[in-house]
Design a protein that fits this description.
globular, 4-stranded mixed beta sheet, 329 residues, 11 helices
Amino acid sequence: MSWNCARHFCSNCGGKPRIMCYCCPKAICHQCIDSAEFFPIKQENGFCKDCMNFVLLSEGIVDSDSSLHKRMSLGDLSTRERYLKEYYEIIKKQYSLTLGDIQSARRQLKNREKRKSCESLDDANKNKRSRVLPRTKLCFNTTSPSEEVVSSKTPTLFAAVVLDNIRLAYLRRRLVGKLLEQPESFENKVKGTFVLVELPSPDGRQRKTRQLVQVTGTRKTSGDHDEVDIKLLASNIPNEISIHMLSNADLSEKDCEDLRQQVQNGLLRMPTVEELEQKARVLHEEIVDDIIATELRVLQVKIDRANEKGWRREYPLISCYIGRSNQIS
């Protein structure tokens, strides 16, 4: 089973990337830099808009009334924000980033915001003009004033079943277990997300297979000692899914290919852009925290392996890893 790193594909179109974000796995190609709001700084690296805003706050070059800036000055950051700030300090030293580099990226951000503001005003004026029907059409629409209202509804946009989109709403078993600690909001958060289910092979001889499914709901069942057990429901799996059946593995392109094939065969409904955006917005903090925790575990394994075998020369950044790990712990 192949594994594809998100940094080697454009986050916007899936093409060959040109600029990679210093602080997150996002990457972008030359044609999508403006539309995806990427800010090049040095050679093949830069910042996406989310990381750019956080870096500006970290450097203290934003408005002083920003709530996040106030929390930074007071040291009152969430776990995710604290990890990101510490990681940025490491990146800044490793790549010799200066305040001038950040100021240059800030000017790019301001210029794009001004350009977007002008474009939105132009679009608003165009929309107003388009709503004024010609006099010849008004003659045919005199039956009722309500019929003169121009509908502004747009057709539903479907999201492409690709790795970057599905990752926005993908939950590992560990994160599902953590969400289960808040049962009152559990169903609302997991419904519509994607999980990897480990299924036994039909003959029982081969190793387990895994299938990417979309959660359609939950069901409470009676467990041992009259305890309530919560199961997940999926449209393409007839049986209820126990939490222990979920995988902690990363998504692969092969998983998305299988899911895409089921959608093309009419076995699954294609997700919409609005659904994925809403789900990603609700779960963003939990998913990012889970990714950081996973990376820290991998980092600790590398540190232990380097210490055990004395391979410090083969791990030139081991001192940075150890320092970062000590800061976090």
